[in-house]
Specification:
By secondary structure, this protein is of the alpha+beta class. The protein has 7 helices and 10 strands. Strands 1, 4, 5, 6, 7, 8, 9 and 10 form an 8-stranded antiparallel β-sheet that branches. Strands 2-3 form a two-stranded antiparallel ribbon. A hairpin with a 5-residue loop joins strand 2 and strand 3. It is elongated, with a radius of gyration of 22 Å. The chain starts with a strand and ends with a strand.
Length: about 280
């Protein structure tokens, strides 16, 4: 049995490890974040005071120093999470050497150990969904987006094993509220088996988004240092797109674009992500 899954939603793409690490450390960061938010609120209201201490007490520190403290704390937590993830993705061979499983694969070898999933555990996915819901966002699909287009030689290599991927973070739909684990943006059509009827799906699409849609993703990226990437195989456009400045080279790319972005370069947009699946 085979099927095609099409995901169409408004959002951004971020590196898989950065989102996995942020979700892993979010529970331990919530308490400190509440503390820093309270400090910032009282600084703005000029109500922050200390019962002990002299002129160099916490109350006299500028808000910029508190922001630096928050940033350093997040950096420290994410570094620990990254080390834990890297350890899981190391291959421990019989001769005592260590090699990342994706390095072993990409160099054409067969890693002498089990290929772990980067995000495909129920606990990991639940942490990601929990984190995104705190920022009023949603994971469009659990399927990671590869950094390069798969070739026939790598077709067996599941993207869930590879940290060099991206995840599609989007604005939630109305259906997201009823079940945050569902993917209301995914349309699936199964192929007919042995000459059976071909699957079809056709939907009306509303392109309406909130007025502040572009700002909805900024807190997640800025506070938890989640890394945005620009991922695309090209663009779909009508003839009127000539007025939008899209060239022929932008419509169909020769290879997949996978580029890390600066926060100032992030521009949420509508994206269409298609995944083919064969179960036999």
């Amino acid at each position: 049995m085979c099927a095609a899954h099409a995901i169409f939603a408004y959002g951004i793409t971020v590196t898989t490890p950065s989102l996995v690490n942020a979700a892993d450390r979010w529970p331990s960061l919530q308490g400190p974040f509440r503390f820093f938010d309270l400090i910032a609120l009282r600084k703005r209201r000029d109500t922050l005071s200390c019962s002990i201490g002299g002129p160099t007490t916490a109350a006299s520190l500028p808000i910029e120093l508190w922001d630096v403290a928050r940033h350093r704390l997040v950096d420290s937590e994410l570094k620990d999470a990254a080390l834990s993830l890297a350890e899981e993705l190391h291959c421990h061979s019989s001769d005592g050497s260590h090699k990342h499983v994706w390095e072993e694969y990409h160099t054409g070898g067969i890693a002498p150990c089990y290929y772990p999933d980067v995000i495909n555990s129920i606990a990991s996915l639940q942490r990601i969904h929990t984190l995104l819901s705190e920022f009023s966002l949603h994971l469009a699909t659990d399927e990671p987006i590869r950094a390069d287009m798969p070739s026939s030689a790598s077709v067996w290599w599941d993207a869930k094993h590879d940290p060099d991927t991206a995840l599609f973070v989007v604005l939630p739909s109305k259906l997201s509220k009823t079940n945050p684990r569902t993917s209301p943006f995914t349309i699936t059509s199964e192929c007919g088996e042995y000459g059976g009827p071909k699957g079809q799906s056709i939907y009306d699409v509303s392109l309406e988004v909130p007025k502040n849609a572009e700002q909805c993703f900024s807190p997640l990226l800025r506070l938890l240092h989640v890394v945005p990437v620009d991922v695309s195989d090209g663009a779909l456009a009508h003839l009127c797109a000539e007025n939008a400045g899209l060239s022929d080279n932008q419509l169909v790319l020769r290879s997949r674009r996978f580029e890390v972005l600066d926060l100032t370069e992030v521009k949420p947009s509508w994206k269409l992500f298609v995944v083919d699946e064969t179960s036999w």
